[in-house]
Amino acid sequence: MILSVLLLSDDSSLRNGAGEPTGDSVHSPDLAGKLVRPRFTEPAKMRRRVIERPVGSSVRLKCTASGNPHPDIIWLKDSKPLADEEGGAGGERKKKRWTLSLRNLTPEHSGKYTCHVSNKAGEINATYKVEVIRKFDREAGATPSQ
């Protein structure tokens, strides 16, 4: 399968001013020249895929991965690439290489967030469902949709 759209890739935090990797990845020197499909390196931190948070709170979504060559990560929301600007949907969004942080959540942040990790050898995806709950929904006794 060929991905025909170039989406927001977060390589800038991967490299220092000289264009060298910063050492935040799991990369073994004995893999030089060998293609290795991406794999998630911290699956235990990814078990909770449906996340409910109240308005105004924060959430961090992790997709730590390794592979050879070093994989790229692209974040999507509801199958659309996330823009690189701060503050989408009235809150704050910050990306570090493998983590997407959403702060000051609003109901507009609710949706399916997917990390697409790929290199020449293959690709993997993980999707989180984020539900932002209005405080008055809980106070009124309403239950969030499943």
Automatic annotation (TrEMBL):
The record ties this protein, via Pfam families, to: I-set
- Residue span(s) of domain Ig-like: 38-131
Which domain of life does the protein's organism represent? Eukaryota
Q: Where is this region: Disordered?
A: 72-96
Under Gene3D superfamilies, the record lists:
Immunoglobulins
* Name assigned to this protein: Fibroblast growth factor receptor-like 1
